[in-house]
Amino acid sequence: MLSYRHEFHAGNVGDLIKHSVLSLIIDYLKQKPAPIRYIDTHAGAGLYSTRSAMAAKTGEYGLGAGAIVSHDLSAHLGSYMNVLTRYAARHQYPGSPLLAAELLRAQDKLWLYELHTTEFPILHQIFARDRRVHLAHADGYAALKGLLPVQNARALVLLDPSYETQSDYAAVTQCVEQGYSRMPHGVFAIWYPVVNNPALAIMIKKISAIAQNKLWRFELTATDGEKSGMTATGMLVINPPWTLARDLEAAFQKICPLLPFEQTNFTATCIKQ
Q1: What's the domain count of the chain?
Q2: What does each C-alpha distance from 80 to 118, 135, 200, 217, 241 come to in angstroms?
Q3: What is the CATH classification number for the domain harbouring 38?
Q4: Could you identify which of 11, 38, 138, 221 might form a hypothetical disulfide with 61, taking C-beta atoms 3.0 to 4.6 angstroms apart as the criterion?
Q5: DSSP-based three-state secondary structure for 211
Q6: Taking the complete model, does pTM exceed 0.90, yes or no?
Q7: Catalytic residue among 160, 168, 224, 247
């Protein structure tokens, strides 16, 4: 589905958990000198205005990243907060590829894929001069198969489609299966909305079977009693850093009370050790 525009949702609670996970993984991988290969199958535009008409229509930024940007969380999410505050000063929010590019080093490389005809030119404008970045107006699902295994480097793969169509659940599963079979020691991070959909349960069950070991599930739930609504979002991570669950739990113990919802809850579940 190519109608999805992430600017409606940039910096929401989904991005908050996704980018907390992403930044902590990159921080950990950078502890060793070996290069990192970051692959983003659904890169989006890369950068979003927090004052655009689309952002104003939903107000989701203020319920997520916008609610924490003025607080000192450097002890828990120093890298993410540093990038977040710099872009917030310009009334912007960095998407996953831009956050990764900000955190990665000169010896690291990024492969970014986006199919949307409106989003890709923006992405291209941002990264056209960054020699670390390989851009493609192409299907990230199909591309991943040919990118792994990477040689003499560590791989970090982010899969975060919009899930506007049922086919995304099966496509993510197939993509993880193909990627994991080629590089079982790579780090695979899969974002998903927590919805009452059998396809989600099937996807999680199948990915749990694909991963031979080291699989964690992280979820953030926010409930607004007045509107009788619930927002929930999660990440599956194969081969996470051993510190990830600990660091996320410490971070969200501080973050949850800052979010403007009646109740928020963060959970970390080890599916396979």
Answers
A1: 1
A2: 27, 23, 28, 20, 17
A3: 3.40.50.150
A4: 11
A5: coil
A6: yes
A7: 160
